[in-house]
Amino acid sequence: MELFVARQPIFDAHMNVFGYEALFRSGMENVFDGSEGNTATAKVISALLGSVEGERLMGGRPAFLNFPRMLLVEEAASILPPETTVIEILETVEPDAEVVAACHRLRARGYRLALDDFIPTAAPNPLTQVVDILKVDFRLTSPSQQQLAVDQFGSQLQLLAEKVETREEFQRASRMGYQYFQGFFFARPAITVAHQIDGWKLNYLRILQELHHPQLDYARLTELLRREHALSYKLLRFVNSALFARREPIESLHHALAFAGEEAARKWLSVVTLLDLASDQPTELAVNTLVRARFAELLAPVAGLRGRSEDCFLMGMFSRLDAMMGRPMEELLAGLNLHEEIARVLLGRPHSDDRLPAIWEMVEAYETADWVRTARLSSALHLATDSLTSSYTEAVGWADAACH
């Protein structure tokens, strides 16, 4: 089975992840005609129900799944566990008697239902009487319509603000009374007016800079780590873990780094440092950043860039630095001495002969479920659908494990 499946987080008012919407398309051959709704949904149901990969993708949280009319009235959702499934009724589904009756039966079985792309109008919608969640698209509605949805249904239904793109929109929706929020607003930088970055963050940036020299300078890295007791403690715990068959005692930070080995020390410290840098941001920001990094790293060899895997990983690792630090990307990259091609990609200034931008475009297209663009890039990079899906799923599992 060929299947593109990505996920998009849905947050509560405290910026904790409540669930994920599964965004999908059933293979490259169907990307352009838009006719595969029933088949694609059925395949996603099968994938989420019957595979470890599907369970890993949702991370044990509720899965929001789009249901076209046919699968809704046939109650195809009944093969999924109601405690982790939210049935999304597409806006194209006519609320006739058969659909409403099917919704009542599904709710009686314990399923939660959501009405997608809801726009409040004078005409009543029968589905508002049988769903639990209204999804209001903040790109398709005006502020007055968004408030009207709260006024009309806020006392009886949960409201989800969809396609929220900025922190300001998130805060406004929260003040209105929306309980859930969907979109990549959490990954947009909120630039601060502070004149200096916290000292510990500056030191962490120096550690990241040191980690990505072609050859690690253990003496310099040890000097930087000595200033960060918590990070040093984590390093010692790491080299004393079951991952290493250690017999001799670790006598110093320098010894710990050498014992771990350059590759393991570089990757582990990069991840832990990134997580600490993002500690005052929503956890999903760190998760999303690590998914990007690992996904890009895994795509590199299958796209003919085997020797650039580390560069692809770094590209993803630094891609959300502005959101984590609250400072412009150009300012942050100026002090990191990254490979020029990585910096050009992150600043949106690639050269025509650069090879990393194609991988980066693929990462961005896949995570936003831009399947038309994904298919075009897949063809250009000679990537098979199954390698894309398996790489993305592996990246999600790896990132979730690193952050939780």
Protein described:
This protein has 404 residues and is an alpha/beta fold. It has two domains: 4-187, TIM Barrel; 199-403, Hypothetical protein af1432 (Orthogonal Bundle), CATH 1.10.3210. The chain is 50% helix and 11% strand. Helix 3 links the parallel strand 3 and strand 4 (85-89). Helix 2 packs across helix 19 (385-403), helix 8 crosses helix 10 (253-260) and helix 9 crosses helix 10.
Highlighted features:
404 residues; alpha/beta; TIM Barrel; Hypothetical protein af1432; 2 domains; 8-stranded mixed barrel; elongated
CATH superfamily of the largest domain: Hypothetical protein af1432
Average pLDDT across residues? 88
Main β-sheet, spatial strand arrangement: 1-2-3-4-5-6-7-8
The poorly predicted ranges are 30-35
Itemize the secondary structure elements and their pairings.
Blueprint (H helix, E strand, L loop, with lengths): L3 E8 L5 E9 L11 H14 L1 H7 L4 E5 L1 H5 L11 E5 L7 H12 L3 E4 L17 E5 L5 H11 L4 E5 L4 H10 L3 E3 L16 H13 L6 H8 L3 H11 L13 H8 L1 H16 L5 H20 L6 H9 L3 H5 L3 H6 L5 H7 L9 H12 L3 H11 L3 H19 L1
Parallel strand pairs: 2-3, 3-4, 4-5, 5-6, 6-7, 7-8
Antiparallel strand pairs: 1-2, 1-8
